[in-house]
Structure formats: structure tokens, C-alpha cells
Amino acid sequence: MKIKGVPYRTIWVNDDGWSVGIIDQTTLPHAFVTTSLKTWQEAAHAIRAMIVRGAPLIGATGAYGLALAMREDSGDAMLDEAYAALLETRPTAINLKWALDRVRNALHNLPGVERAAVAYRVAAEICEDDVATCSAIGDHGLKIIRDLHEKTGGKRPVNILTHCNAGWLATVDWGTAIAPIYKAHDAGIPVHVWVDETRPRNQGASLTAWELNSHGVPHTVIVDNAGGHLMQHGQVDMCIVGTDRTTRQGDVCNKIGTYLKALAARDNDVPFYVALPHSTIDWTIRDGVREIPIEERAATEVTVMQGRTASGEVVPVTITPEGSRAANYGFDVTPARLVSGLVTERGLCDATEAGLTGLYPEFA
Ligand code: MRU
User: Ligand 1 centre and the CA of 294: distance in Å?
Assistant: First the structure.
């Protein structure tokens, strides 16, 4: 996507041919800053500290992390060490394991001298695959938005609620849940997006709002608990969110609070869609509630918020009493029965094992 007319992806190889450029997502929306990763440890830190985040981008960063490791030392011990350290940076998004496995499998049995070049090549393929995949998700999701626009008489914008950031910042480009919104906006279909702020890290208020603002898509930021009220009053035509891990029966694990939106959507007959690339499907599990590890992050993400003061300084402020404990669960699972449909790069399907294996027969 473009920022002030300049096309960007979220991750790239710099002109030196080996260091990895990323956008520092912790400084948005107040400053647009890019930075470089020069070691696999820096890649691991960027994922853990959420300098990069979003399931597909975590995977792409992990892949380049292995390439950086192979550049330093192409032996098996380094490969195993970097693989294990990168894998444990964030436990919920399966894309990380998918991408690390793809690189490691390509290096298996290769002589050391070839490993770094192959790792960079596979990391680049993962990125290209993600861009094409997300663009196709956008095309398939666009049809849903177009149908809704026609159904509502074509006279008013389609109101779409989303949670967290599943836009281009969460992927290499385009996004998952936001890709159909960009495609609809670009096709001239009027859309308006309700953006959940997404406490505690405010990916909605900071990142989704910044993206939509940069692209000129009309939107309104709301507190996380406003969605049910809006749905009761006919202000939401559809919800669409991303997912960090999707089970083979169609359960979806996404940013904490997604489940409550799905419950409110079901109670108000609002369609609830989930957009995902193939790399987010964990074919080894069925029951998301019992089988997906839920990341727990530092309590300070709940007790301390960051914001810009009137003088332009970005400062942290504590919002809880000293002595109150805080818990910080990063994700929740929305059972498949609450999902109206899965939007993938191969098309739309029911959130069921038959639906998913119908689109991906190679995993039946
Ligand atoms: O903790 P984050 O910011 O990495 O969580 C991101 C999300 O929950 C997204 O919705 C998810 O990765 C799917 S988007 C491509």
C-alpha cells in the first residue's frame, strides 16, 4: 500500500542485499519509522516486542530470521537454535511455525554454502505468496460487500465492523479482513468501518485507523464494548475479522474480544465473516477452545497506556491503582458455529471441516 504516494510492504530486503527492513509498528500512528534487522536475535525481538505483529507478518519475519541466522553460521546447530528461539516468540499464530518449517525443510540436506541463499529465496517466496493470497482474499470478500450494498438498496454505505488490525500492516501487503474493504472502496462501493479500539494494545485505534485514514476509507473508532449496541440498532451490516489460527473444523482464534463480537453478531443476525490465508489453518487440530495455546502477555500492557500529549510528546500513563493485579490474555477462540463464512484465497466456505477440505482437498 502507499504511504504519502510511496508504495510500501511491511517487510523487505534492503539495498545491501541482506539486512531486512521493517516498519516499526510500535510508533504508529504518531510516527512512521522504518528500521532494520541484522541478526536473527533482532528478528526474534521484533516479533516478541510486537515491532512487527499480525499472523502472516510474524511468519514472514520468522522466515527472514532464519535467513539471517544462516548468513551468520549455516551449520545445523545454528539452524536448530534459531528455529527454536524464533518459534517460541509468540505461541498462538500458527503462521510462524508454518513459515519456519517451510524454510527449515528447504535447507534440509543442503550443503552449508548454499543455505543462506536458499533461506532468503524461500523467505521472499513466502512474502510473494502472502501478497497474492491476501489480494485474492480481498477479491472474494469484495463480492460479499457488493452483494450487501445491493441488498441494502445501494443508497447508503455498507457498515462493517472489524476488530484488531487485520490490514496490510498485519500481513506483507493488502491484509486479510481489511483487503475486501480496500477492494470495495477502490471499486467505488461506499463503505464505512467501525474500528474496535482493541485494548490493551489498541491495534484498532492505532493501526487499523491509521491504515484506513491513509487510504481515505471512512471509519469511526469505537470502544471495544460498543459493537453490541451498534448491532442492536441496525448500524452494522457485517463483521469481518482475521484469525491467528483456524482449526480444521473452522474454529477461529483471533485477538481477545473477537468471541464477544461474534456472540453479539449472532444475537442480532449480523453476518460474521473471518478472512484467512491457507497459512493460518492448523490442520492438526479440531477443537480450538481446548487445543490452541493462548498467549499471555505482560500485565503492564493492561495497566499502562501510551498516548500523545497536546505538546506532541508520546508518553506512557498508568491507568490502574497501585496494587491491582492485571491479566492479559492475547487471544480468544470463536467456535465455528458462530462464523457465517470463511473468506480464503480460494473462495468462501462454511466454517466446517467439509467446507475447508472442499476448498483444500489436499488436506481432506
Ligand atoms: O497480537 P497481534 O497484533 O499480532 O494480533 C493480530 C490479530 O489478532 C490479527 O487479527 C490476526 O493476526 C489476523 S490478521 C492478518
Answer: 13
Same domain for 15 and 28: yes
Say if ligand 1 is within 6 A of residue 25 CB. Answer: no
Look at strands 245-247 and 252-255 and give their pairing.
antiparallel
Residue 244: active-site member? yes
Q: Looking at the whole model, is its pTM more than 0.85?
A: yes
Atom of ligand 1 nearest to the CA of 254: 8
Grouped pLDDT means (10 residues each) for the chain, 364 residues = 90 98 97 97 98 98 98 98 98 98 96 98 98 98 98 94 98 98 98 98 98 97 98 98 98 98 98 98 98 98 97 96 97 98 98 98 98
Give the Cα separation of 169 and 166 in Å (integer): 7
Query: Which residue range forms the structural domain that includes residue 223?
Result: 133-363
- Tell me the CATH number at 275: 3.40.50.10470
Q: Are residues 150 and 85 in the same domain?
A: no
Total domains in the fold of the chain: 2
* Beta carbons of 196 and 172 less than 8 angstroms apart: no
Rounded to 5°, the CA angle 212-25-255 comes to 75
Atom 5 in ligand 1: residue holding the nearest Cα? 54
Task: Determine which one of 173, 196, 224, 244 is catalytic.
Answer: 244
Q: Are residues 138 and 124 in the same domain?
A: no
pLDDT at site 5: 86
Distances from the Cα of 94 to the Cα of 114, 128, 219, 292, 353, angstroms: 27, 18, 30, 9, 18
Q: Is there a single domain that holds both residue 178 and residue 251? A: yes
pLDDT of 1 reads 87
Taking alpha carbons only, the member of 169, 147, 133, 188 closest to residue 343 is 133
Is the CB–ligand 1 distance for residue 89 below 6 Å?
A: no
CA of 197 to the centre of ligand 1 (A): 13
pLDDT attached to residue 2:
86
CA of 173 to the centre of ligand 1 (A): 14
Q: Are 144 and 238 in contact (CB under 8 A)?
A: yes
206, 214, 204, 178: which is closest to 6 by C-alpha? 214
Look at residues 84, 107, 129 and tell me which one is the last residue of a structural domain.
129
